[in-house]
Amino acid sequence: MKGYTKIQYTGLNYEQVKEFAGDKILAPYFCMGFSMLSLYTPDGFVTVNEGDYIVKDNNGNLSVNKGGW
Fold this sequence. Notes:
12% of the residues lie in helices and 48% in strands. It is built from 1 helix and 6 strands.
């Protein structure tokens, strides 16, 4: 997608995700053996699961793309 940047959350790259999303991401938490994050978007907080992509548009707004690009 033109004009967008993205990063995939692997469950092991919180520091890189934090650098990408800044203060709009909360520290990971674990549920049933998986790591998840909470991301603040224009629609409120959403869950980021391992394998999901965090997408940033030209305006700096963040969203989650579940299941690939």
